[in-house]
Design a protein that fits this description.
This protein is of the alpha/beta class and 448 residues long. The chain has 20 helices and 13 strands.
Length: 448
Amino acid sequence: MKLTILGGGGFRVPLVYGALLGDHAEGRVSRVTLYDTDADRLTAVARVLGEQARGVADAPAVVATGDLDEALRGADFVFSAIRVGGLEGRAADERVALGLGVLGQETVGAGGIAYGLRTVPVAVALARRIARLAPDAWVINFTNPAGLVTEAMSRHLGDRVIGICDSPVGLGRRIARVLGADPARASIDYVGLNHLGWVRALRVDGRDELPRLLADPALLGSFEEGRLFGADWLRSLGAIPNEYLHYYYFNREAVRAYQNAERTRGAFLRDQQEGFYARMRDPAAPALATWDRTRAEREATYMAESRDAAGAGEREESDLESGGYEQVALALMRAVARDERTSLILNVRNRGTLSVLDAEAVVEVPCLVDANGAQPVAVDPLPYHAVGLVTAVKAVERAALEAAESGSRSAAVRAFALHPLVDSVTVARELVEGYLEVHPGLAYLDRP
């Protein structure tokens, strides 16, 4: 099978390749094509993959190319992990928002909307290209904001595009371990949108173990989300939120922490990765070891501002382990290619799963996956507090999609103004003007 990775020069591509190296079953991926518009980054990542493959007899062949059509033709799976505007764009997203006193995080709030407005037109163009050149390919989207981008691509690819995220699987794994359960045997009731979901039950052998966790303050304080949100708030919710909900529930504290930080997360990653790719220009540099050190630092500092605001301390060693989105991607590909029926939490079209949203809305829910793709399973209705956030953020996504499709500046303003973390229409207008100044790619927003 041929896997094409769009954004093949991206820093996390070696995680995907590493997962493939551990798959030796019949029908595995035998060829990986890396596509990127940045030749230096593409060369650097190809070097890392080359070192990963040493000593692995059946390692998938790696081809790097800057020709998109060549990359897509004959692909069985297309993994989309592009970053429009690069990390400099992310840093600008954060900077403009924080300058106006609102959150500038990559996928949440103003920063996420700006990133979506930059990314959707490119993602839609890719979806159309895939539909023409590789109509039978399955597209796995990891490009952020993952739910918004997956929904944009689904309008051209239907159910053949599936969004993935590592947050739900990581959360479920942490809860299971705290409860002394094998994560592989646990069934997770998780529901919401990408980066906006809640674990409402965790069943082991048919028994829901979450009430036991919620009733024990010591257990709640022993893992990352328990420290991030606090035991009292989790008991009040009766659920464990995705870590990104910290930005909603503790917005003032999060904004203050970001404003007080020496650098925003985007600026930190920009500087860190520029250093990595610069070192990779030295042919004598050990590619894999250099990448691994950089990755460890990246993971250790993940959501550092939120943990500081909550007094949650440093990340536990268990939270730094691999096994995130690359394992979800591998499990998804295996289920589809080999008809190995499995259950995964994915971003797919709603199809009535959440009654408060229409059928075409992309949601993040448990799905049954086999050769026919991913089918969302029935879930209990959302509680009212979750309905409010989910429907509000979906309205924001729809306004952003309208702006990207029509070039309407007023739709872009509406997307910002409707977001729960933007507290003024005036600020929304200032955000649009600020982002137009720093992002030439948003010049398409030229209609009133």
